[in-house]
Amino acid sequence: MPVRLGLLSTARINDEILLGAAPSDAVEVVAVGSRDRARAEAYAQQKGIPCAHGSYEELLSDPEVDAIYNSLPNSLHVPWTLRALDAGKHVLVEKPFDRRPAEVARAFDAADAAGLIVMEAFMYRHHPQTKRLRELVAGGSIGELREIRSTFTYQLEDPTDVRLYRELDGGSLMDLGCYCVSGSRLLAGEPELVEGTQLIGGDGVDVHFTGTLRFPGGVESRFECGFDSPPSSTLEAIGSEGSALVNEPWACSEHAIDLHRGCHTARVELEDADRYRLQLENFAAAIQGEAEPLLGRADALGQVRTIEALYRSAEAGAPVAPASA
Question: Do 181 and 229 lie in a common domain?
């Protein structure tokens, strides 16, 4: 029996979830909730969702819903995840989970106490390209890992976009740089020291952020993200004997890795896959006790501790260490 999923909001990102769920036998989207009943009903009719609820509370009380996809603005991720858990629902929470480590720990504590699954929705982590990149780096294909470089930028022109509001925990590090942080941690582990600089705009959020992460063994990661630059999306691992470059690592649209060693370049081609479908199927398997969630407590806490430290560094104007476990 598929896991019955309810959508908490009518956010645009839901379209990817719906496309991922459509061909899967593991998950079925059965309901959507909105603060406006008419909007929920129109959305449900348009998207072919069986049930519409006129409030988030009503969705959470629906006995036909097993799990919730929480695509609310960043500042509402933890509060509504906690409410969903209290209602007995598993939760797939859109990235980034939060910018406060204590809040993320609180959500996982609640899930553990209730025997429920919570997973952060970094969809790119489920794609075969990401798995293969990690294998190549760990297997010595570029020699000893020395440096990681990544970017994620685009031009955000709508001044009313929720990503530009401080009260909603907006900002480029939260929306874009979180991918660079996640990719760096995937390849190098947890950083010992971080340093960040930010350009403030919007409603007092960072519209551009650059960061350096220093890992054990002397590995460094440098990243750039922003709402004010031409589109760029890259992840490159540089080793003692070569490098591995992925273009569009977060969208996984090229599904290929370029390996450079000396004067030679080889392209590792990979089969494409719907990363949202794979994410949903891992979530469903975890709920049914058939697999571990790919992104559980340890990864979510490592992620939020790094983000919190980067913001702390940017405010202090000096390198800082992420909070310990």
Answer: yes
